[in-house]
């Protein structure tokens, strides 16, 4: 015997009401599921995860002047690409790296997806690491520049003048007339070091000039006696 709602629906000519289907539940498998079925399902799922090819790593060498002022470096490298037949072929690539003022040794530049290709993998990245060429006069320490100057002992005691050029080419001249240059003496010029990356506009480190007093290797007896007379009583 049909129930009242169904009988009423038939009498009116409308289709009987439908019971909504039950929602299907989906299980998310993990490697910790107990039982072989769970582990098999996780392994099957993992097989569809696309991995990325290892990065292609190279170095890009810059001079201290280039790291100070900034520059453009053209880099050429060879990458592996997958052909339509699934084979590996070599391809020459040229990229431009825009070196920003103040970059340090070890700074990395990444070209995403422009490294080596491997079948079944996403293309790897091309990663370039900045290296600094040794400078003949200056040494970098953080954002500061250090310049070492050798001063003969006689000039350290009686007066000395010397000049040098900054990384930008400007000439600097110093004279020491009324002061004695002591071993380990250091003169600091504020704001003449390297640009500070991420700092305030125009922020720079300092230039530190370290003086190395060069002593004579040998003295005659007469020279020693003369120095004793001259230096006796000096503070």
TrEMBL record:
Q: Name one GO molecular function term.
A: unfolded protein binding
Enumerate the SUPFAM superfamilies for this protein. Answer: HSP40/DnaJ peptide-binding domain
Q: Which UniProt keywords apply?
A: Chaperone
Pfam families (alphabetical): DnaJ_C
Is Cell inner membrane among the key words of this record? no
Q: Where is this region: Disordered?
A: 1-35
Q: Does the keyword Chaperone belong to this entry?
A: yes
Q: Which domain of life is it from?
A: Eukaryota
User: Chaperone DnaJ C-terminal domain: from which residue to which, for each copy?
Assistant: 57-216
Q: Which GO terms describe its biological process?
A: protein folding
User: What protein is this chain from?
Assistant: Chaperone DnaJ C-terminal domain-containing protein
PANTHER family according to UniProt: CHAPERONE DNAJ C-TERMINAL DOMAIN-CONTAINING PROTEIN, DNAJ HOMOLOG SUBFAMILY C MEMBER
CC terms in the record's Gene Ontology section: cytosol
């Amino acid at each position: 015997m049909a129930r009242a709602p169904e009988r009423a629906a038939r009498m009116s000519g409308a289709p009987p009401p439908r019971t909504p289907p039950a929602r299907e539940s989906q299980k998310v498998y993990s490697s910790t599921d107990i039982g072989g079925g769970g582990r098999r399902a996780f392994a099957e799922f993992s097989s569809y995860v696309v991995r990325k090819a290892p990065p292609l790593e190279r170095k890009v060498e810059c001079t201290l002047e280039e790291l100070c002022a900034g520059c453009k470096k053209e880099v050429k490298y060879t990458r592996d690409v997958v052909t339509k037949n699934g084979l590996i072929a070599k391809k020459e690539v040229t990229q431009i790296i825009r070196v920003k003022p103040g970059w340090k040794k070890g700074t990395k530049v990444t070209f995403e997806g422009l490294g080596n290709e491997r079948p079944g993998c996403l293309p790897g990245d091309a990663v370039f690491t900045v290296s600094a060429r040794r400078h003949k006069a200056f040494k970098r320490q953080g954002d500061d520049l250090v310049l070492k100057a050798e001063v003969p002992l006689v000039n350290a005691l009686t007066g000395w003048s010397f000049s040098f050029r900054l990384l930008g080419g400007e000439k600097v001249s110093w004279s020491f007339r009324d002061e004695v240059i002591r071993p380990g003496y250091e003169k600091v010029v504020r704001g003449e070091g390297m640009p500070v990356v991420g700092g305030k506009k125009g922020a720079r480190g300092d230039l530190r000039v370290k003086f190395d007093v060069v002593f004579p290797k040998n003295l005659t007896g007469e020279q020693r006696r003369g120095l004793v007379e001259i230096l006796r009583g000096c503070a």
